[in-house]
Amino acid sequence: MTYWLFKSEVSTWSWDQQVAKGDTGEEWDGVRNYQARNHMRTMKVGDLGFFYHSQKEKEIVGIVEVIAESHQDSTTDDERWDCVDIKAVRALPNPVTLAMCKEDPRLTEMVLVNNTRLSVQPVADAEWKIILELAGDA
């Protein structure tokens, strides 16, 4: 299994909206960055990801699961843009803020700490466990 982080502005798509979609989930659409798209192209059904509220909140709030592999993004006819479908798995007991990640010396190599603008990014196994620990979910 591979781990990921999906970033969204609360005003665009929030954790509560993701949860409301239930087991049918939702396309992670609208991504227009080649690196983020390429990450989605490598995802497999069953991969897990953190759901991150960007902009003002800047915090990891939940865990999602990839339920459909890369396919054409339905929000565009441009064949260059793909997306995956994800569903909410569970909320974290305590959100993990970007500041917490930056302060933790174990997370200095985490993509989120070093590239806060990338909307879909990989999370290393060790980083996944540390985030769960910080969230009180370990």
Automatic annotation (TrEMBL):
Membrane-crossing segments per the record: none
Domain EVE: residue ranges: 2-134
Signal peptide positions on this chain: none
InterPro entries: 5hmC_binding, EVE_domain, PUA-like_sf, THYN1-like_EVE
Protein name per UniProt: EVE domain-containing protein
